[in-house]
Design a protein that fits this description.
Oligomer: single chain
Bound molecules: iron/sulfur cluster
Shape: globular
Number of helices: 19
Number of strands: 6
Radius of gyration: 22 Å
Distance between the termini: 47 Å
């Protein structure tokens, strides 16, 4: 109880600074701040990580979308990029293209990004710093806790109680497909020295910005990204209860899976407790557990685990949990001996205090707070102002 209260108090301070204080104490910053504190406290005190994380990520994604589109209309009067805005306008650097921009930059010192980047190097460097710190802290957990796009399909994947299409038997192939897509996109980007993913495959152009329809290739491109949005972000998540775009198409997700070994936290499976019921595999939105994972007693999900907490919440044996990477290495090297094992009173207090699940949630949610606050408060304000103006509440 002490650790939950302490972390909730610390999170309240963080939210006060990043959301309310940086939001100039506006009523919208207070509303979003209280929402964040409520979500964090709900995870801490109910232990239901995935349930409340999903609410947070879905709300954040919707508010981000409203804010992004609203800003485009304020600045350009349209979501479409004309020939002029394509060369003159600046857009925020998007984390999805990090793996595609990085390799051409290292090889040729050319930044491959299909527009001028808002804030240029300052913008790139600040995003890269946040991404690097997040990578060594929560690894692919970024996709479940900090990605402003992932929440949309997370929301759709949670709308049905049971999936209409089951995928567990194909999870291995789906994971392989995702890495093949990453390699393909990197090679195509290098071959054309242009961000092929942004121009042709990014489904999120439907909710951000897209080229004005002026010729046949743009018309085809528009058809492709609209189809991808409805297929990968809406229809397949509804049918399968999986995050299909995150797990099959997103270059950033594939890269984070490869880098996840650097992170401080892991999800581990206690093979002694596990009864092989496969409930974890059925609920995993990232295709990260399959029959082999359980039958071969691997003791951890596969490489694509995004630390969403769905399996932790659902396992009837409490056999899956978040753990520190350091503890895992210690256990592997000292079989049968628990980390911080020992009779001393101080050791006992420390053992009770250092609960990886709560520290992981605290670390991951901190990234969510830092990344979401500005745009979410902006989105909330836009929705409130639109409602006030629609119902003429201001004149009452
Ligand atoms: S839900 Fe728990 S008990 Fe069932 S297979 Fe997964 S880890 Fe084992
Ligand atoms: S293995 Fe568990 S924590 Fe990892 S992505 Fe799947 S459900 Fe989420």
């Amino acid at each position: 109880m002490a650790v939950k209260s302490l972390l909730t108090a610390l999170m309240t301070l963080l939210v006060y600074f990043f959301t309310i204080s940086l939001g100039n104490g506006s009523v919208y910053s207070w509303i979003y701040g209280l929402f964040l504190i409520g979500i964090f406290a709900a995870i801490m005190y109910t232990g239901k990580v995935h349930t409340y994380r999903r609410v947070f990520q879905f709300v954040f994604a919707l508010l981000f979308t409203v804010a992004f589109i609203g800003n485009l209309y304020d600045e350009r009067g349209s979501m479409a990029m004309t020939a002029n805005t394509f060369t003159e306008s600046e857009v925020p650097f998007c984390h999805l293209v990090i793996p595609l921009v990085f390799i051409p930059y290292v090889l040729t010192q050319t930044v491959v990004f299909p527009a001028r980047i808002l804030g240029h190097y300052a913008s790139i460097i600040s995003l890269l710093v946040i991404w690097f710190v997040a990578t060594i802290t929560i690894g692919r957990g970024w996709c479940s806790w900090a990605c402003f796009y992932g929440g949309i399909e997370d929301g759709f994947s949670g709308m049905r109680k049971k999936p209409l299409v089951k995928t567990v038997a194909k999870n291995r192939e789906i994971r392989a497909f995702h890495f093949a897509v990453l390699v393909f996109l990197i090679l195509m980007t290098l071959a054309f020295m242009s961000s092929i993913y942004c121009q042709w495959f990014c489904p999120f152009k439907l909710i951000t910005e897209f080229p004005q329809l002026v010729d046949i290739p743009t018309l085809i491109g528009t058809f492709v990204f609209m189809s991808l949005f409805f297929l990968m972000v809406v229809i397949l998540p509804l049918l399968t209860k999986k995050r299909t775009q995150c797990s099959m198409l997103c270059p950033f997700g594939a890269m984070q899976s490869l880098l996840d070994k650097m992170s401080m936290y892991r999800v581990v499976i206690d093979t002694e407790r596990c009864t092989g019921c496969m409930k974890c595999a059925e609920v995993c939105p990232f295709f990260a557990i399959d029959r082999e994972t359980i039958l071969e007693n691997k003791g951890h999900p596969e490489i694509t685990c995004a630390k969403c907490g769905a399996c932790v919440d659902v396992c009837p044996q409490q056999a899956i949990r978040f753990d520190f990477s350091l503890t895992k290495h210690f256990r592997e090297k000292n079989p049968g001996k628990a980390f911080l094992d020992g009779p001393g009173r101080l050791t006992k207090i420390l053992r009770e205090f250092i609960e990886p699940k709560y520290f992981f949630v605290f670390s991951a949610f901190t990234f969510g707070v830092v990344i979401s606050s500005g745009l979410a408060v902006n989105g909330l304000q836009r929705i409130a102002e639109a409602l006030i103006s629609a119902f003429n509440l201001g004149g009452m």
